[in-house]
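Shipment paperwork, digital attachment
Item: protein structure file
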Amino acid sequence: MKVAILGAGYVGLVSGACLADFGHRVTCIDTDAERVRQLKAGRIPIYEPGLEAIVAANLERGNLHFESSLKMAAGCEVVFIAVGTPTERGGGRADLSQVYRAAADIAEVIDAGTVVVCKSTVPVGTTREVGRRIRAVRPDLDFHVASNPEFLREGAAIEDFKRPDRIIVGVDSDEAREALYEVYRPLSLNETPILFTGLETAELTKYAANAFLATKITFINEIANLCEQVGANVQDVARGMGMDRRIGSKFLHAGAGYGGSCFPKDTMALVETGKDAGAPLSIVEAVIAANDARKAGWSERVVAALGGSASGRTIAVLGLTFKPNTDDMRDAPSLVLVPDLQARGAKVRVHDPKGMPNAQKMLGDVAWCETPLDAVEGADAVVITTEWDIYRAMDMAELRKTMRGDVFFDLRNIYKPREVTRFGFRYFGVGVGREPASAGGSSTAEAVPPGRMRAVGG
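Attachment content:
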């Protein structure tokens, strides 16, 4: 099929490259001429494992093209809108200006029979509004609309697109249904479920899924707080919960709080949709508040471990992106932690294998380090905020020798306490409570104020 994708950002680029890899003839159209120039040259503006190779292969085959003119959408059977829907400034609603601008622009160039598909994450009713706006420009044009939300995890987007759990397609015509089935027909060999629904159902399914996953993360983080106070281990609690097939083990990993391009903005947009519809979503509202509080509380915990003051102290932060295998800094916990530590008088040294170029646009007055060992040099405390592989097997003896202090915060629980404390560190994990004596580690039984973490070792 001949397919156009409006927007060569994360979703548009991954979707276009994968559809081209299926054999479709795909043109990604972006108004950023410099981005288009780089993509034509095979230079990828984002970090996503495997994406560069797929783009290069399909550029060479001639299946994938990058253009800046919307006229290139003419003659395409399916046109995906994959532009950004960020949160509006000063509120929680999704900013749909790019979506509606794209709809108005392509109205002038699409042909009769074209299916216009909202791939962007949009609130309920947006796809119908896209159709209304196109008809306002071309009232006599026979075209169709559809909703096809994406479910791509950053760092695993290629795998998610090619081997998805399901494909959700909202349609209101047989022609749109047949066209989208043909787009995804190559996945039928893998027996991928394709769920055809109405437009509003597809739009809401995306938001509901993300809100539920955000809720699981926030729930286990609050259980982690309880574990720290009563001496339980959240990892074992999560394992026990996950063995229940009704619950499942995914997204039950306690940590620093969720961030990224989807969960923060989608939960807020869903809350606003609920308000507009007269159906308040109190659980989602509580999730947002709890997650914000969690990210805001880490600096206080680090400072408490340093004796109550960070003035003149040096703190190493390892990992800046909201998750590994991406360079995405959007709503990352580090964007709260680092400025808070600086405000408390700390000097901050940072390392991230992929995120520092983007982080430099958002963080100031920090020391940017080439290696983890460089970052911890002379540090009073080290804080792991992102579970990159490079941090999973660090030389603890060398780390301890290089540091000035002994505070080790592991906000992703990638180490067991005894793996760290035997080198003279005081270990602070997430929800690990007191390590049982049978595990070979020491424990601390001192009273800890609410919200404070127990240290193991030291």
